[in-house]
Input
Amino acid sequence: MYDTIIIGAGAAGMTAALNVLRNGKTCLILEKELIGGQIANSPRVENYPSIKEISGEQFSSNLFDQIIDLGCKFELEEVLKVEKSVDVFTVTTNYAQYEAKTVVIATGAEHNKLNVPGENLKGVSYCALCDGAFYKGEEIAVIGDANTALQYALLLSNYAKKVHFCMLFDKFFGDKILSDRLVQKENVAIYKNIQLNEIRGKDSVEKLVFTNTQTNEEFDLDVKACFVAIGMSPKTDIFNDLVDRVKGYILVDENMMTKTDGLYAIGDVRSKTVRQLTTAVSDAAIAAFNITKRLS
Ligand SMILES: Cc1cc2nc3c(=O)[nH]c(=O)nc-3n(C[C@H](O)[C@H](O)[C@H](O)COP(=O)(O)OP(=O)(O)OC[C@H]3O[C@@H](n4cnc5c(N)ncnc54)[C@H](O)[C@@H]3O)c2cc1C
Output
């Protein structure tokens, strides 16, 4: 039996592991996809204290090395169910079952889908870092208006012939430093007040069809790819009635504990106003401190 099982190897999950391991507790991390979670898809992180600039991939890999060196157990498995009986949690994955005295939910959030016809065509992507280089010299579109969309467009402007930046409203919802950089790019065209209705193409993306929400006129863009960054949502159904939720985000107390004793939730999956690296690792440190205290 582990002292703690952490679900999700994003910044929050791995930081929680770092702190419980340093306090002599045993720990298993279960991750369904990618070490690093969301931040692994970020081309450039510039707001983490004491690190001027680092790629999200490097940030994730450094953190992973740090916890593996401390003896963290890691399995690439998807958690399907968490149950509690008396003082023991049973965590069921697609391959196995594990037991722990405490469990930390660090499952973050996943990309929202557009829900328009054509979304399944080749060329629709939710990760500019993963797929951007395929569209070198092409015209492509970015759908969104906040930090992730801005970062995607800045990165893609290095490869693409032209980036069409498509916003639903008439203002940016991201950091000014990023939008200032974007408007200065010569190969970026910015469109405001447009809503995407359909993605057309035979096998892959060829055309995006929009409505101008001010004039109700239809207009389209011929592009080879469509990068989507329209927010994230948590997937917390598997935790059922072990947790209380607001719009899917898990409610915790000031120790990061859910309504179930010994079950914690940290990072982007919990109900809070600021979701970024520093708040994810802060949540993790608080949860780890409390786990150590209750187990010691
Ligand atoms: C493109 C992009 C750029 C960003 N840039 C910045 C930045 O520059 N600075 C900054 O501060 N923040 C940035 N952010 C936000 C930041 O990445 C997040 O706030 C932070 O990484 C959240 O970490 P987390 O560990 O809570 O969640 P996540 O990173 O979402 O990690 C959750 C992990 O849990 C795993 N998981 C989910 N469900 C299960 C399951 N059932 N079983 C097993 N594993 C599961 C997921 O696969 C994932 O790896 C960026 C986000 C994106 C998308």
Notes: The chain has two domains: 2-109+234-295, 124-228. The chain has a mean pLDDT of 95. The pocket of flavin-adenine dinucleotide is lined by residues 7-13, 30-34, 37-39, 41-42, 45, 47, 78-79, 106-109, 148, 151, 267-268, 275-278, 280 (CB under 6 Å). Residues 277-295 form the longest helix (19 residues).
